[in-house]
Amino acid sequence: MAQVPSPTIRARRLRRELRRLRDRTGRTAEEVAKILGWHRTKVIRFELGHSRVMPKDMQSLLDLYDASEGERESLTGLLRQARQKGWWSAYGDVLPDDYVGFEAEATSISAFESLYVPGLLQTEEYVRAIVKAGRTTADHDEVDRRVAARLSRKVLLSRDAPPRLWVVLDEAVVRRVVGGPRVMKAQLRRLIDVSELATVELQILPFAAGAHAAMGGPFTLLDYADPLLDPTVVYLDNDSSTLLLEEEKQVVRYRLVFDHLRAKALDPDESTAFLARVAEGYPD
């Protein structure tokens, strides 16, 4: 499966480019809005992604910023791509945030998980057990849609150039029995199989490692082919909210934390053996 441009990534790149062009003029966002006769917050909303940039508004900005023909062509292309829909738009009711759009074009994914197996590595039965546990009032159709959305993400690992995936799992993830012994055993075997892929590294952080740098919870680092155009994103997630961090100092902090986790965890071969021992404890 070939990789297709992610509208989410293109929208972020467009916002960054508009901000760069404005900075080049030396004008504040409020000054630009005043010149164009807009509400004073309109430019800021564009640059933060709180409002969609319409073609007419972008042309006004490019004229004011004295953009070159090359810049106009590039940004017009970005706007066109940003307005397209990714496959995940069909699941907008059960995928409410932009994470999948950011994940779709990542060339490297580094994740620490302390609660459950990451979505890209989950079996269908495991997904269903997780969704049912977290959505106690959901009807059958909603559960099915959430499961389908989660499983659709897994095509990322089978595309022509899959991302490099490095996952550190807290031991609690593989000890907690989700969906019953049969489901859990199948999930552990899935982790063992995936760990053999050339593009996947999987490590277990054992209880014996004691306190560690990510006691605050799970996180994911998403890296891209051109870090100048598309800087790294840090994604934080819990039951009630999600957060995307983009500031360089925040990214540096979480990358350092991930390095510490990798150093404390069992190496990949030891981790695979650990998973096999845990799986043997469940009946066939």
Automatic annotation (TrEMBL):
Q: Which residues form the HTH cro/C1-type domain?
A: 18-72
- Tell me the SUPFAM superfamilies matching this sequence: lambda repressor-like DNA-binding domains (SSF47413)
A single Pfam family, by name?
Answer: HTH_31
Superkingdom field: Bacteria
What Gene3D superfamilies has UniProt attached to this entry? Answer: lambda repressor-like DNA-binding domains
GO MF annotation terms: DNA binding
Q: Where does the sequence pass through the membrane?
A: none
- Can you name this protein? Helix-turn-helix domain-containing protein
Organism of derivation: Micromonospora yangpuensis
What high-level taxonomic lineage is stated for the organism? Bacteria, Bacillati, Actinomycetota, Actinomycetes, Micromonosporales
